[in-house]
Amino acid sequence: MMIESINWFPGHMAKTTREIRENLKLVDAVIEIRDARIVYSSSNPDINSICKDKPRIILLNKFDLAEKSITDNWVKALSSESIRAIPVNALEGRGLNSIKPALNELLKPKLDNMAAKGIQNYIIRVMVVGIPNVGKSSFINKMAKNKVAKVGNKPGVTKSKQWIKTNIGIELMDTPGVLWPKFQDQKVGLNLAFTGAIKDEIMDIEELALKLVQFLQKNYPEKLMERYKLEDINEDPLINMNNIAAKRGALLKGGEIDYNRVSIIIVDEFRSGKIGKISLERP
Fold it and tell me: Which Pfam families match (predicted)?
């Protein structure tokens, strides 16, 4: 699967990084969207340095698919004087009503200054950033209350900058998804693959499912047993995978394991939260 050797920096992504730098002067703050299950892996390392002078809100999206206590720890670890971390479900709109109060708090000196000049209803302009497939378009659509951004489960659907108005005194600047040039760490690549941030077409689904079972049997054995009605967990992930295939009838003629089918079942059920609330990373 050689995830760490994939080069993910096509021209439009290099262009996006440039655009973010150039357009920062047009906005008051930055909203960065990450996946609550992979908070570290779904961040772009460049964002911290590029946006360091701007107040920032980090949205931990799909929080309902992650373990609550771990998400709470991430909120504490990420929050600072100039950063607020907020767990959200962008698709359903849960948690989004915390954004305006957080922006008001982060931008208080500027808003007080505007009010002193007689500008009462100042429109806060915010740049939205994030790697592909973390839910950026879903967030923008929910905030705008209409389908202004293309939504797809394929990474990198958004291709150009656009301004989106909301009815709560915030204007959003959308940017294309940014992913870094190279996966320096195999774990980061795996986490992105588990959650679907990397195109499935270039992954070996069977190896991916095996690695996922390996993680789950170590960190969430009870959830694995409960979901697939397993009597016990074996040290060998392949045996666990075979047992899941048998329980789900993912078999070929003659009783052989249909590895492609059982792999798709495991990965899909993890992504949809059917195995349970799972965090792949801790702060």
Answer: MMR_HSR1
